[in-house]
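QA checklist item 7 of 12: single-chain prediction sanity check.
[x] sequence parsed
[x] length recorded as 283
[x] structure emitted
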Amino acid sequence: MPDLWQDAMDHAVTVARKSGEIVRDALQNDLMIMCKSSSVDLVTKTDQNVEQLIITSVKEKFPGHSFIGEESVAAGEPCVLTENPTWIVDPVDGTTNFVHGYPFVAISIGFAVNKTLEFGVVYSCIEDKMYTARKGKGAFCNGQPLQVSDQKDINQSIIATEFGSNRDAEIVDKIFSSMRKILCLPVHGIRGVGSAAINMCLVASGCVEAYYEIGIHCWDIAAAAVIVSEAGGVLMDVEGGSMDLMSRRVLAANNNIIGERIIKEIEAFSAVRDDAPVDPSIK
């Protein structure tokens, strides 16, 4: 029986590598930087070029498939996950890192069918690390199997998180309060590389016990969610329960013990869902 989605996954790996070449080349040239929602929510011409490369190549090979892409949504395309085979793409995860030459930048390509994630490809292109996972077939980095940490003691753990791009004082206070509570459990440390996809891959790799964030988007986490799950980790909402891909909230942990302990310390808040209807009166 033919493998329905292996060809798609192989294509995702190929186009991720090509995209990585574009990113590395752009780092050697002038960067065209623009702002989206605020002065800290950045987009570059490279983001747009990479997304166009991915979408064009996929449409040629799989013309019936759908897309959710960060830059396409920013340009007004709807962010709706249907039962149709759907590519969920972040062309440059870690744009702020990219702009500053901070060496953690990823191309993230997730793939869902019937609203279920089937595979994920995260290419940390400056490090040249290709993270891949297929549902039911394990997770890998450059072909080597990944396995989450077996640590069950929160006091012996490293936790990853990010500050996000929201600079509203009330939100920032909640973010710092959560970090303070977690740090004072105590944990070994709090880290963050500036890319949701890479942070989650570090959980899958076993060097970080958990990662949480509120305010990310589905394209930041779709691919890495498969990688975490296939490496033996768990995915949940920051207030417990299952992860909702469109909720803009995620907690990825090596096991339920660590995840549920962190949830107790997080001052949760809600973000506007990725699939929320767009008000046509807002330009």
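[x] summary fact logged: Residues 6-27 form the longest helix (22 residues).
[ ] second reviewer sign-off
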